[in-house]
């Protein structure tokens, strides 16, 4: 009999990429104590530059420094960001890069998603690997290929290698600041509708499923998500499962060199609100919290979609052209939804035009959809969760479970579906709803009396 811990180790070994980008992952209580030993194995006599912020240094910094000393590692003075509310911005990458340019050290990052993204990009810019000690199970980006960084006012993904090693100390993670592990739970719950989006995209010829990346995320997703209360309560086992899910999602993104396995329409809502500079009570809600509300939005629309019948869909291109925008009209809509900054407008235009279909293209897409529907209608319900259950799980994990809790009114949520579709070329439920012309039935009705997001159901939560 193997212990659950050995089982996890075995799963991790199988999941690590053959190209060796991430060579070691440990998810267990006390993992931070091994930082020095792991650093020595991977980087030998190269000095370590511990990078942290004030919060994450408090969480595990001293312990990691001690382990470096014990392992006989050379080390530079720690690099500690002084902001209490640190953001992943290009200016913050630059200060770390400048420090790295002065010395010949490798970053040992101690932190959550933000710190890891800063360390990842700065290390890449000086052409060095790095490793991370995770202090919260807050996002799936730790082991992803790429860093999510705000540049000139909008969030972008910069492609850069994942850490060579990741140590997730579950005792440190259990003590993470309020909201961080719930954020990670919401980011993992997002893989439910994201998986449905990929099935849809695969069936309609928009983007094929990458079998390894799929299996890494979807294989054990239900088990990882099984204990939202445990995540909220800091239970080691629940956090271990959550962290495993987040790490495997990152490894899937490494394997496919794409975020598709971990991100569908629900993430588009979050990216949209990022690009709109959305804040609530003076702060940007966490990535996971925004994604959680996106997950609710996407799941509610999936319920509506599954009740539709494509048999009667019009597929004559000449008739479709009457309701389908031409390129100029699409461009006008994008410019109206994203008037500034110009770099953002251009980026969204490129993404939207990237998935534009002519009326003929739309006609073939809809024919394909009709053919694929019996199989989809059988497969999708088993992959999805009802929106009400998504909501219950978010609440159980102590993540926001209604849009108002992140400062998004019902009206704004409804108005977010269309621009969310525009910002990425990624094919999702939002595309099939636009293509079928089922927008009213599957989006707008959610906000009418009796709908999932009806105001009457929300009246007590509505902000003044
Ligand atoms: Zn995410």
Task: Describe the secondary structure blueprint for this structure.
Elements: H1 4-15, E1 24-28, H2 35-43, E2 48-53, H3 54-70, E3 79-81, H4 90-102, E4 106-111, H5 113-125, E5 130-134, E6 147-151, E7 154-158, E8 165-169, H6 170-174, H7 180-189, H8 191-203, H9 211-218, H10 221-224, H11 228-232, H12 236-256, H13 265-275, H14 287-306, H15 317-323, H16 327-337, H17 342-354, H18 359-383, H19 387-396, H20 410-422, H21 429-436, H22 439-442, H23 455-458
Task: Describe the structure in brief.
With 464 residues, the chain is of the alpha/beta class. Helices cover 55% and strands 9% of the residues. The protein is built from 23 helices and eight strands.
Major sheet, described briefly?
Answer: 6 strands, parallel
Strand order of the largest sheet: 1-8-5-4-2-3
| Share in β-strands | 5-15%
**Total tally of structural domains:** 2
Describe this structure in words.
The structure is a single chain. This protein has 464 residues and is an alpha/beta fold. It has 2 domains: 4-177, Rossmann fold (3-Layer(aba) Sandwich); 260-461, no CATH class. The protein is 55% helix and 9% strand. The strands form 2 sheets. Strands 1-8-5-4-2-3 form a 6-stranded parallel β-sheet, with helices on both faces. A two-stranded antiparallel ribbon has the order 6-7. Helix 9 (211-218) runs antiparallel to helix 12 (236-256) and helix 13 (265-275) crosses helix 20 (410-422). The longest helix has 25 residues, at 359-383. It starts with a helix and ends in a 6-residue tail after the last helix. The model is unreliable at 460-464 (pLDDT under 50). The protein binds zinc ion.
């Amino acid at each position: 009999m193997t212990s659950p811990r050995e089982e996890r180790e075995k799963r991790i070994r199988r999941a690590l990429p053959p190209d060796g980008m991430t060579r070691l992952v440990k998810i267990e209580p006390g993992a931070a104590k091994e930082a020095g030993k792991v650093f020595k194995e991977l980087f030998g006599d190269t000095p370590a530059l511990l990078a942290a912020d004030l919060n994450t240094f408090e969480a595990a910094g001293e312990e990691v420094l001690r382990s470096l000393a014990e392992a006989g590692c050379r080390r530079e003075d720690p690099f500690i960001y002084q902001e209490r509310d640190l953001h992943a911005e290009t200016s913050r990458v630059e200060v770390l890069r400048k420090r790295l340019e002065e010395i010949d050290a490798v970053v040992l990052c101690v932190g959550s998603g933000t710190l890891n993204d800063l360390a990842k990009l700065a290390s890449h810019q000086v052409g060095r690997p790095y490793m991370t000690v995770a202090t919260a199970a807050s996002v799936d980006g730790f082991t992803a290929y790429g860093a999510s960084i705000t540049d000139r006012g909008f969030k972008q993904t910069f492609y850069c290698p994942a850490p060579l090693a990741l140590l997730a100390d579950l005792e440190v993670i259990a003590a993470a600041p309020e909201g961080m592990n719930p954020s990670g739970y919401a980011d993992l719950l997002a893989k439910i509708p994201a998986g449905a989006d990929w099935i849809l995209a695969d069936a309609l010829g928009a983007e094929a499923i990458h079998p390894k990346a799929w299996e890494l995320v979807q294989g054990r997703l239900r088990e990882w998500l099984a204990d939202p209360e445990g995540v909220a309560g800091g239970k080691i086992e629940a956090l271990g499962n959550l962290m495993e899910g987040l790490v495997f999602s990152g490894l899937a993104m490494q394997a496919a060199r794409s975020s598709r396995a971990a991100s569908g329409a629900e993430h588009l809502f979050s990216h949209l609100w990022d690009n709109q500079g959305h804040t609530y009570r003076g702060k940007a809600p966490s990535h996971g919290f925004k994604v959680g509300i996106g997950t609710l939005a996407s799941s509610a629309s999936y319920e509506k979609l599954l009740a539709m019948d494509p048999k009667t869909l019009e597929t004559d291109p000449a008739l479709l052209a009457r309701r389908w925008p031409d390129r100029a009209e699409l461009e006008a809509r994008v410019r109206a939804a994203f008037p500034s900054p110009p770099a953002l407008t251009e980026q969204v235009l490129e993404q939207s035009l990237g998935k534009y279909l002519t009326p003929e293209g739309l006609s073939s897409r809809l024919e394909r959809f009709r053919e694929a529907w019996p199989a989809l209608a059988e497969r999708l319900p088993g992959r999805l969760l009802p929106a009400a259950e998504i909501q219950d799980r978010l609440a159980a994990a102590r993540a926001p479970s209604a849009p108002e809790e992140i400062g998004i009114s019902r009206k704004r949520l409804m108005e977010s579906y269309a621009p969310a579709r525009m910002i990425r070329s990624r094919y999702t439920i939002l595309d099939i709803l636009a293509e079928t012309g089922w927008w009213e039935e599957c989006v707008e009705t959610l906000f009418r009396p009796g709908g999932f997001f009806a105001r009457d159901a929300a009246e007590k939560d509505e902000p003044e």
